[in-house]
Specification:
7 strands, alpha+beta, seven-stranded antiparallel sheet, single chain, 134 residues
Length: 134
Amino acid sequence: MRTGLTIVLSVVASGVLAATPDWLPLGENANGNRIYVDRTSIKSAADTTSVTFRTELKTPLDTLNGGITSMRSQMRVRCKDMTAAGVEVILFENEARNQAFARNKAAKIEYLKEPAGSSADLVIKQVCNKAPAK
């Protein structure tokens, strides 16, 4: 019985550790916000790659309860044409406490070219191996 419980706890613990984000700093976007990509979130399938990245805002966005200091975004990337489609964005008032201000999911998945120097542009270049890892 104890052996079985130990095995179950080990499997659960390894699953939790595997889900821990591994934030790779990519630098700053054109607005001076710091950008990070979660290396553990990068998953390729067919002609797209899904990825999660976070943006630490240089200047917080004011809200009634304080300010939005960071956001976490999920997107899909097509390296063949260097386009991306937003899937979800979570705006955080306090990311350390998982205190979200808003969560927005895309109603439609639409692949677009991202502006040069934008957060998504930096992530696309990293995911498609067009930028050196830092």
